[in-house]
Amino acid sequence: MKCTFCKTIAKYVVDEEYLCQQCYSEKVRKCRDCGRKCLSKWCELCSPEHYCTQCGQYVEKLHETSDGSVCSSCLPRYRVCVDCESFVLSNRVRCCTRGNQICFVCYSCIGTNYEICDECGELQRIEDLVEVEDCFYCSDCVPRNMYPTRSPGLIVRSNSFNEIKSRRYYGIEIETDDGNYDAVPENWGIHYDGSINGMEIVSPILQGDAGLEEIRTIYRNCELEFDYKCGIHVHIDVSEMTDVQKLDLVKAFIDTEDAWFSFVNEERQDNEYCHKGLPKVRLNDTFSSYLSRVLTRYTWFNLESYRKHGTFEIRLLEGCGIEKVERWLKMILCLVSEVCEMSH
Asked: What pairing do the DSSP bridges indicate for beta strands 78-80 and 87-89?
């Protein structure tokens, strides 16, 4: 065999390289740690790639962090930043809440995406805060005299089902950037939402054509304005469905997910408060077992609302005009009716 370096006759093999007598004398050295012959400061087994940057121990498998590679024993000292997804030492992150979950953010991401609530001192994403007279407030601390708030009223029942064919109860939440909130009827709720600049207008429980007319009245009188943050949330009553029907309805929405996303604008498709990510329905799933694997309410088809309200919530539609809202609502109710009819 020929020497890897000078192409003369090789006599030795070191680190899987062939060496002649002269190259052997010039290039081979002893490993700093174990004394084995090698071509660099460390042999392959003692390479720094196998040493934990925290404790210095030699291990076969390491984990990449913002400070280098660490062993499994040192890894618990690190937290995963929810924004950049890097492993960062626990003294270089801050705890915060996102939705109803506790998470961690590294200092690098804090400077870019976060601010401190001036009232409670909690770390919050900038888009979840409202600025009032050069101060930032989270949704729990925003001065309540800024906006009047109230809960929705009694059920609006209908005797007519010409436009809305289903007799099923439904509801709607309209996130706004601005509007004439004084014109919101007394039987509708209104409250502040930290993810938007304006108010969220919440319907009472609605039914049939009478419910649709209630929504039209809001659009007609309240001069609603929307920006890219705003969404329309539709709630569907599933309290009288069997568990089999509920699970079949979940399957139907998951299977048609791409179609629903094709009906909304691109900004809404990338919104973190209505993203994809529902778990797939397994062959042996019951509705209860499936529900136990749903961990967030910020998916476009929200099942967390079932635990609280007995409804399924479709959060995907962007803030838009009444014509699109009507078509959206009718499509949802039509799909629900067809699935319930066919489900056994």
From this structure: antiparallel
138 in Cβ contact with 193 (< 8 Å): no
In angstroms, the Cα distances linking 279 to 148, 282, 306, 307 are 38, 9, 16, 17
Pairing of strands 206-207, 231-237: unpaired
Bridge partner list, 96: 103
Residue spans of the domains in the chain: they are 12-45, 47-143, 169-342
For residue 45, give both structure tokens.
């087994």
For 94, counting Cβ atoms within 10 Å of its Cβ (0-12 exposed, 13-18 middle, 19+ buried), the class is: middle
Secondary structure (H, E, C), the chain:
CECCCCCCECCEEECCEEECHHHHHHHCEECCCCCCEECCCCCCCCCHHHECCCCCCECCCCEEECCEEECCCCHHHEEEECCCCCEEEHHHEEEEEECCEEEEEEHHHHHHHEEECCCCCCEEEHHHCEEECCEEECCCCCCCCCCCCECCCCCECCCCCCCCCCCCEEEEEEECCECCHHHCCCCCEEEECCCCCCEEEECCCEEHHHHHHHHHHHHHHCCCECCCCCEEEEEEECCCCCHHHHHHHHHHHHHCHHHHHHCCCHHHHCCCCCECCCCCCCCCCCHHHHHCCCCCCCECEECHHHHHHCEEEEEEEECCCHHHHHHHHHHHHHHHHHHHHHCC
Give exposure, 296-323, as e/b (b: 16+ Cβ within 10 Å).
bbbbbbbbbbbeeeebbbbbbbbbbeee
Which pLDDT tens digit goes with each residue over 66-90?
A: 767 778 888 888 888 877 888 888 7
The tokens of 83 are what?
């924004």
What is the token pair recorded at 280? Answer: 């797939």
How far is it, in rounded angstroms, from Cα 27 to Cα 303? 66
Instruction: Give per-residue pLDDT as tens, 238-254.
Output: 999 999 999 999 999 99
Contact partners, residue 74, CB within 8 Å, separation at least 6: 52, 54, 55
Distance from the Cα of residue 240 to its chain's centroid: 30
- Which pTM value belongs to this model? 0.61
